[in-house]
Amino acid sequence: MRINYRNLNERSPNAAKRNPGSVLFSVKPPQTEAELLNYTKAIAGKSLAELANIAGIKAPENLLRAKGWTGQLLECFLGTTAGNKAAPDFSHLNIELKTIPINANGQPKETTYVCVAPLMKHVQLQWRDSIVYQKLKRVLWVPVQADPAIRVPERRIGMAALWSPTPEQEKILQQDWEEHMEKIARGTVETITAHQGMYMQIRPKAANSKALTTAIGPDGKIIQTLPRGFYLRTQLTRQILAMAYV
């Protein structure tokens, strides 16, 4: 399938002048998994510069000050629907979108962010009702070159793959989630380290040390602490890539 970029939902041409980094279009949300995979095939093999040019923006030379730029660009080309909601990116399909930076050997270069960890609203929360499960029950993985030897604009998009956890993978994810959530519920969130969890860890997620949020402390009182996020270890994402590209 080839996307007809002339028929995209374009915004005003003046938008680029107001905000040079803004993407000027988004595709029609895919209505089926097959249509979504066709979208991914249309961009597979293209460089970030090629996609940025189609979108009417310029690819950054580095991502130090453009964190999340690649994911936002792909969202526009794939037609995500969730926006800022706590729901899978393709909410109507119950599919989450995850870009996965890969090194020169085709292996995951870093952990993968899942979602914010609930530090207050967690009473009697069950695994299958959690936002973590909702985000991970069906994932579209899109590999992107992240070898430092390749300039950001020249980095290419790989073939995407749809994944759902195997029973064994879900069992371990659930165990990790339950162990983390038990510590949060007991008021010992600050004892959680990034070393805990076989497939999924919790670690601070904040722009700086002053970006605090509320949580339950050891004595049951409200404390101020750094926001936490769930992250998938590369131990799991390596498995996922191996399953998808054997």
Written account of the structure:
The protein is 28% helix and 16% strand. It has 246 residues and is α+β, with helices and mostly antiparallel strands. It has one domain (5-244): ECO RV Endonuclease, Chain A (3-Layer(aba) Sandwich). A 3-stranded mixed beta sheet has the order 1-3-4, with helices on both faces. The chain has a 3-stranded antiparallel beta sheet with strand order 2-8-5. It has a two-stranded antiparallel ribbon with strand order 6-7. The model is unreliable at 1-23 (pLDDT under 50).
Characteristic terms for this protein:
three-stranded antiparallel β-sheet; ECO RV Endonuclease, Chain A; alpha+beta; single chain; 246 residues; 8 strands; 7 helices
Concise structural overview:
The chain is an alpha+beta fold. It has helices at residues 15-18, 33-43, 48-55, 69-78, 131-136, 167-185, 234-244; strands at 96-102, 112-116, 139-145, 161-163, 200-204, 213-216, 222-225, 228-232.
| Terminal CA distance | 24 Å
What name goes with the CATH superfamily? DNA mismatch repair MutH/Restriction endonuclease, type II
What integer is the average pLDDT? 86
Overall morphology: globular
Number of helices: 7
Q: Level of helix content?
A: 25-40%
Strand order of the largest sheet: 1-3-4
CATH topology: ECO RV Endonuclease, Chain A
Structure summary, number of beta strands: 8
